[in-house]
Task: structure prediction
Amino acid sequence: MSADYQVIDAVAVITLNNPPVNGLGLATRTAAVEGIRKAQDDAAVQAIVITGAGKAFSGGADIKEFNSPKALTEPTLHTLIRTAEECSKPVVAAIHSVCMGGGLELALGCHYRVALPGAQIALPEVKLGLLPGAGGTQRLPRVLGLETALNMIVSGTPAASEKLPALFDEVLPAGTDFAGLVQAAVAFANRIADVRPLPKIRERKVDYPNSEAFLQFSRNTVKSVAGPFPAPLECLETVAASVTMKFEDGLAFERERFLHLMQTTESKALRHAFFAEREASKVPDVPGDTPTRKIERAAVIGAGTMGGGIAMNFANAGIPVTLLETKQEALDKGLATIRKNYENTLKKGKLTQEKFDQRLALITGTLDYAEIGQADIVIEAVFEEMGVKEAVFRKLDEVMKQGAILATNTSTLDVDKIAACTSRPHDVIGTHFFSPANVMKLLEIVRGKATGSDVLATALALSKKLKKTGVVSGVCDGFIGNRMIEQYSRQAGFLLDEGCLPEQVDQAMEKFGFAMGPFRMGDLAGNDIGWYIRKRRAIEKPEIQYSKTADLLCELGRFGQKTGGGWYDYKPGDRKPYPNQQVNDMIVQHSADLGIERRPIADQEIVERLVYALVNEGAHILEEGIALRASDIDMVYLTGYGFPLFRGGPMFYADTVGLPNVLATIERLAKGRHGDAWRPAPLLVQLAAEGKGFNSR
Ligand code: NAI
Result:
């Protein structure tokens, strides 16, 4: 049973009991319906209270049942709500902590609602590209009014129970505990036990003078902020139906639009991302109960672009951190940048003075390794050169206490080789932050061949503490994200050689939904980073071809925004790109030097070449076991590279296009210029032949 039943003072108390948040899965729904029926049939029961055990009244639908036929098996959520509403004895919802989605819809079907203050009330379905499909869009406006209900449903944002007095018959005094809530709900139920007819929200009307004008105004606003997502507008139209239609018709309309949204790619993509984020923290051979090490003190080596941002992450999480540099000037510069970043946040009002002081106080600097020896984790973020990193790790091996985790922020270098310079390779791991490290959500956690399970489990737990999405990668050049982006950037370069200019490529990718096209991204990150990597590759893997345009750009000293210009020009304090004639001439001249006749290139070709370059490399990465699952690759791209969320990540996107279609395009490209870059990944070929997808292997 996943709901408990007891009778207190002639009131049946049904307690939903499906940890962690009393999701309304089939077993819980069945138990709740049986409880209501039992109470109805028991002459000794006057009224019913429904509440939730543990951490929630109910968080809504059981996510384990998403996309499964169980969600549609009787009793459905509709049936449960209808059973409560049609019960001949009063049903009181006793709400605390969390009352969201289907949980709130159930409460709206009850005759009365009693709540603790501070309970989080929401219909967040829009965040998964859906709308509340169990009467929420019809009942909430009838009780809270059109405007409040519309805002809640279109935004999905929670409100505290005490801020919604119209929703509740009683909000109890602050400090009341769960036992007090049940006691108060039972007392309330006894007080109203004889009141008839039973109040039903469905029988109310939504009063809003001139509602059509308000709805039209809201339509325009919602359209302008919804971007490519259809759900917010669908939410609005179903809420509008609560004004214009009879309750039953509105309910049928809500159902129809809900089922429509369930089938949209945008909702599928959002649900995919939702599950992908949860899956990413699971590593098959590192069970969830693997012991973790304590992280109470941290150190960061190198106070440059990344080191400073990484240190801020620790301070933001309340963990003291020491930055180590070789020279006082570099240390001062790094600490000053951190202070400036926090000052900007303070000025914007996003940080209180108290928090500002606390965070700065948690960050200290040193030039002396002796001062960091007691840290529980040290993250190295020095220059991307093996020799420098090896020297740092040899030193860390000497000074760090036993049990400390030794992490590297390298973007491309071999973590196993770095680990091999120490006498404790099991303590070594890669923690690859993304720039700006204090902002970007992604943390690639690189598992070396000797990395201990507890070290990996600790890094995963730390990523949560730092509010990052941790994704585990095996060791290879560039790990998941940068290894794939290299193929993407190579194609972007070839497109310049063949006929594009940077702005055409960027615009095509931004129209596809990327936050930034490849050339704007290069200007932001610094084109010199890729230049350095290509120089290394030219020695290690001379067979790999690149367009020379990026090197020519760097030879002009145009590294990007930090030098005032790269592929584009920039005005001080403005990130807007302005095309540069000299750069464009250089690109055209380079084509001539190569003997290439420039041709018009359609946006579709640009998108296919760049995105399928990611997909094909992603398939290699999956096949080699560098990524544990396709959805991990999608998480890397959604949280670290600005891949459009409504497309669900490169691997999910390929699945929606259909792998046979993706493969056919790749095979066609393999016959063109630089065809060697289009060797189809065997896994792609295999899945396409089997009619499967990357995410449904
Ligand atoms: P950076 O050049 O801004 O900073 C490196 C800092 O390390 C400098 O302040 C330098 O004085 C210091 N340093 C050099 N040798 C040192 C030593 N032996 N001991 C102590 N400090 C030393 O470099 P950035 O961009 O912060 O990169 C650092 C690492 O992070 C590299 O491995 C890089 O590949 C990686 N990374 C960089 C990203 C980026 O977008 N910049 C993104 C993700 C990773």
